[in-house]
Amino acid sequence: MILFPPAKINLGLNILGKRSDNYHALETCMLAIGVTDVLEILPSDEFHFSHSGIPFKDGDGKNLVVQAYELMKAKYKIGSVAIHLQKNIPMGAGLGGGSADATYTLLGLNELFDLKLPSTTLEDLASELGSDCAFFVHDSPQIATGRGEILENVLLDLKGKFLKIINPGVHIGTKEAYANVSFSPDDNCIKDILKLPISDWKESLKNDFEVSAFKKHETLSMIKDKLYAEGAVYASMTGSGSTMYGVYNERPLLWDSDLFERIVEL
Fold first, then answer.
1. 2-153 sits in which CATH class?
2. CATH level 2 (architecture), domain 162-265
3. 132 assigned to active site
4. Global model pTM greater than 0.85
5. Beta-bridge partners for 1
6. For residue range 88-119, what is the model confidence (pLDDT) as tens digits?
7. Residue 60 among the catalytic residues
């Protein structure tokens, strides 16, 4: 079985305040895009996990893919598998690649072992692995609230537009991202803003992480300015960074740089 866990971008990201469980209350729209990892899952006599592509450290062996398998193994009668992950999506970049890998492991195991788990159960399982993991259960844009696990379908028509994503290799840790962030006003509703023409998003659709990130990493604001200068109708940072993206009416050109850069049709 071969699966293709996608990256995502955030269209707007409001940080509404800190919760009693020390998570932050969020509002954002998440959209899966055509940049993917590759996940192969095969029956095996014993569990084995391997990876290639963009290198990463296994740490204590508890990669999110491994955690997803162990979660399913603990709750359901499944056999051993060999999993190989071809890592193409940059990590710690606001693109949700690790979360997608974990959720697609759940989806793959559900299919491989014919568990017939409904999407609601898969969402609950995914939420145990990470705040934005549940989003990847469905292939549709969704408004996420709570800590990111409460999902609502949203009508969003970007068909025919093009997306350029650029990751400059700047690392922004979670602690750094939240350290100097300001909370959004309650009336800055992303779901309402997305109903406006995309030409109005530049002034209204904000990512609250940008202000502090741009102060510390000037290259990010420079990339955003360059995206607009070459014709993007909307540009933003995704997640807590550091990937920047622009939405275009016409296919943009590559910048011929050493940055991680992709162009996909929406």
1. alpha beta
2. 2-Layer Sandwich (3.30)
3. yes
4. yes
5. none
6. 999 889 999 999 999 999 999 999 999 999 99
7. no
